[in-house]
Amino acid sequence: MQGPGVPSLDQLQVFLTVVETGSFAAAGRKLGRATSAVSYAIANLEQQLGVQLFDRDRTRKPTLTAIGSSVLSEARTVSVGVDSLRAKIRGMLGGLESELSIVVDVMLPTGRVVDAMQAFEQEFPTVALRLHIEALGAVTQLVLSGVASVGISGPEHRGLAGLEQIRVGGVELIPVAAPTHPLAQNDSNPPGAARDHVQLVLADRSTLTEGKDFGVVGVRSWRLADLGSKHALLVAGIGWGSMPEPMVRADLEAGRLKHLDLPEWSNGFYAMQAIYRTEAPPGPAAAWLIERFANQADATW
Asked: How far apart are CA 151 and CA 157, in angstroms?
């Protein structure tokens, strides 16, 4: 038994237009064709598929058969796919990236990431996006290795050749602990008090800055590879440590954590820059995304 033939994209478009407009004549007007040409295209499509798409016997208005309704769903999927392909090719011919891979420092407030991603999806619907979340030197490492085209990085990349950087603000890191922790019992602590308690520290998983310590005060420290785990342990009363203020704002307001007054803690601002390799400048979508992050710098998150 011979299977169905292969319909053309034009036949499918005529079919979709007839369904959309409700008649062969209206479809002809929208497509700029004679009604007879529309009818001929539908007849050829039905012959190609070997099925009847419209019931012409019981009504003068084209009414889909049960098989026609099933074909309609598939035809729409094909049409959307073709439109998406054409849009992507138009963008590529104009220099637009087909895919963009970025890596973001885990310290960047979630609100900023969501804002940028929502706006990017609206502005560049044809560009596939790969988003990595990393900590400390791992951000720079992914950019240098070419895994990511753009990185939103902390200060760990400074002094490295081959990188361009653009200021995108930063985040305030504050020392916190659970209200039951000894350091949280007093409004202020004497110099050296923090060194006597376990400090929870975010570990650097990259080889770029392996072995380096960032903001370590305590003699005893626990190294954690995940900021979420660090947050959970702090709330549970295990140790003390610094956290991005936006991430613990609700905990401070609810009394689950307390902002510690430590003489050793001075400037907790964690500056961030958008970085990319000098030899691989950003395309239109990447440049737009960098600008979005830069414009966020002065906002409150």
From this structure: 10
